[in-house]
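To: structure desk
From: M.T.
Subject: fold request, one chain
Message: Could you run this one when you get a chance? Sequence is below, nothing fancy, just the single chain.
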Amino acid sequence: MRKLFSALLLGGLAWLPALPAAAQTAIPSLGLTVTLTPVIANDYLFRGISQTRNNWAFQGTVDVQHDSGFYIGAFLTNAKFVASPWNNTRQELDLLAGYRFELRGVALDVGYIAYLYPGQNKAPGTQLNEYHEVALKASYTIDIVKLMGAFNYSPNFFGRSGDGFYVEGGADVTLPYGFTASGRLGHQWIERNPLFGTPDYLWYSIGVSREIYAGVTASVAWYGTDISKRDCIPVADRASGGQRACDGRVLFTLSKVF
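Reply: Done. Structure tokens follow.
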């Protein structure tokens, strides 16, 4: 079942409510800015679908950007897919690269994402789940409201399910007392739905976040999809009763930007 809105580092952890302003480390002699973001969450949701079978996630991102706007980055998390001897995924590593710039007040991010699953077994006659995307992200701030949108394309989506197209829109609103309200709405199209495990689907989230202490931000949000429980259960997992990976749920996170 799969995965990353434009990308964690393509402008922030996209599946979470807004993170605090980045506390970054500059290396002036090289023209570089390095940002590290560890996250603890009660689940790992990618485009509304659980990637840890509803278990806790421990994650980290690193982003290295040059003054020119070019950047590279990586995201690492634990993961756990369906109960199958040929799908023993236990971690996910995303590699990112791209270019950030501003045009007439609009912040733009054009990037590439490789989704990798180190140590995963490969069933005879099948392919590994790893895949690649190109992504375009844009945002525009009007007073207390930040509007954003994204488009992702994969020529061979998760599980070798063919062309994958993804669009997302959302907004962050600055509230009194340091709170930020966030909303996201996305839609995923998959060419070969049976190989992916679900039909084309819509997901959404609404939440609130706030710095609570020493740069640590707490977030709480509701996530949901329009996928029925029957449609969400991959064939390999039907015997075990499914994993409720597409059910609506509350997501709690703690994060800190270094």
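Reply (cont.): The helical segments are 193-196, 229-232. Let me know if you need anything else for the meeting.
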